[in-house]
Every structure is written in C-alpha cells, then in structure tokens.
Amino acid sequence: MYDFILSFTKPDTLAAYLVAAAVFATFVTVFLPYLKGDKLETRLKAVSNQRERLRKQSRAALETKSLRREDKSMMGSVSSKLNLAKALEDPNVVKLMNQAGLRGPGPISAFYFARMALPFVGLVLTFIYIFFINDHGFQPVMKYGSLAFGMAAGFYAPNIYVKNLAGKRQKSIMLAFPDALDMLLICVEAGMSIELGFNKVSQEIGSASPELAEEFGLTVAELSYLPDRRMAYDNLAARTGHEGVKAVCMALSQAERYGTPLGDALRVMAKENREMRMSAAEKKAAALPAKLTVPMILFFLPVLFLVVLGPAYIKYQAMQSKNDAAPDVTQVAPDSSVHDVA
What is the DSSP letter of 190? Predict the structure, then answer.
C-alpha cells in the first residue's frame, strides 16, 4: 500500500494513471447513451400498451352488450308489430334522444308508443272534463275543438318532454365543460394521449357532471374501435349539440388531420368556453330585473303599502272614534242661554 502511494510521486506513473482515467472517461461518454436506452421509445410503447388495453376493454364490453339490441318489452313488441317507427317517423328523434341521454332501442320504442297512445289519453281526459265536469259555457264547436286540442297535446307531449330533458342535460354539460377542457389540457401537456386524457377527465369530472363523464367515456370507447378518430369527435359534437363542444371537436379533428399541437388548440378552446359560460351568466343577470318586475308588483308593493299606510289608517280610525264619542258643543250652548234668560 505504501509503495502504491509512493508511485503517485513518480511522473511517469502519474501520467499513466491520468491517461487511463481519460480513456475510461471517453469510453463512458461514448457508450453511456446506448446503455441508458431510448426513453421516448419506452414512453410511446407504454402509451401503445395503454391504448391496446382500452381497446380490449371496449371490445369486451361490446361483446357482452351488443350494439344491435332488440327491445323485447311490451312497448317494443307493440311498436314493432304496428311498425310505429315508420308510421310516426321523425327524422330527428334519434339525434334528440341521444342528446337527452336516451340510447338504445328501448327509449325509441317507448317514444313512438307514447306518441301513439297519448293522443287517445288526452282525448278521453278532455272529453271527461268538458262534458262531465265543467264546460265553461263553451259552444259545441268549442267543445269539439277542445277535444282536438287534447289530442294534439298528447301527440306533441313526448317531443316536449325529450327536448326539455335534452336542454337540462346540455346545461349540465356546459357548466362543467370548461373545467374539463382545462383538465384535458393538463393531461395532454403532461404527455398523455388523447384517449388517456379523455379517460382520466371522465373519471375526475364525474362528481361535477355525470352527463359529461358519460359522454367522454363513450368518446374513449369510440376512439378505440372506430376506423377514423374524427368520427368519434363528430359523434361527441352531435350528442351534445352545443356550439362550444362542436368547436372543440372541430379543433381536435384538424389537429388529428394536420398534426397541429393539441395543447394550443385546447388552451384557446378552454378560454373561449369560459368566456361563453361567463357571458351566459351575465345574460341571466341582465334579464333578472325584468323577471322580478311582476313578482315585486304582486308580492312586494302590497306589503310596502300596508306597512306605510297602515299606521296612518289606524290613527285616522282612532281620531274618528274620538270625534264620534265627543259631545256636540253647538247644541249645548243655546240651551244654557235660555236658562239664563229665564
């Protein structure tokens, strides 16, 4: 050991050690990148494995629950036997039902069955009310017109119900959509693929908007098995029926087609959707005074008049009662003068 330490004092031995260290450092510098491996390739492989796993899950779900289902309920059998889908055909019913969250053959059969049955129900109820309960003094022509109105109300009642349901669902989706875009932007900028981003956002946004989580889950499934990814974005825009979602889906389709960065497009779309939500809130706030005019006239002003004029009316009544109870001085004075003369 002592001889090894003394060797460092010799110039030739020290030079040999320095040359060996330089050769080793050169070897490490040249071959170290090959020893580390390609992180990008590993990352892309992980994304591909995750995508394949999601595709397998979606296909397994489709095998257990086929898309081509048949409605075997009573309403479905009646609708199929009477061919109500053709007799009462509505070209927008499938799109409207999807926007309302009613998917599959069951809700469609129930819709056509209700459109067939409710006119007769409305006719019977109107007939009972007009001819047996209260006719309101209607002439016979008005009575039969009321029957026609009952049938028309029953015929259009399913459309009104589904439209209201779709409107409520759309409001719920749009309240949470800007926040969902922010989370999707974070996922994309973190290196996730768009499928993993949609899947993660659907899990996180479920507590705020179950409807939006359901739509994102369907989009993940469609991205897994549809031949063209742009079809999944178009289906998402059609199911929601909102301009903000359509703009986002168009931006995603263009990014898929031309290879533009998703982060920039999602950032701009998130900002626009937040501004749309703020403008909708400002619009409601601006319309609030006009909506409060009638309730204030009916409920606030009468109470205000009662509070302001009530005490004055009470004092006036008290003064009137005192005046009525006081003796008549003009009648007492002449009687006293007559007694004095006597």
Answer: T
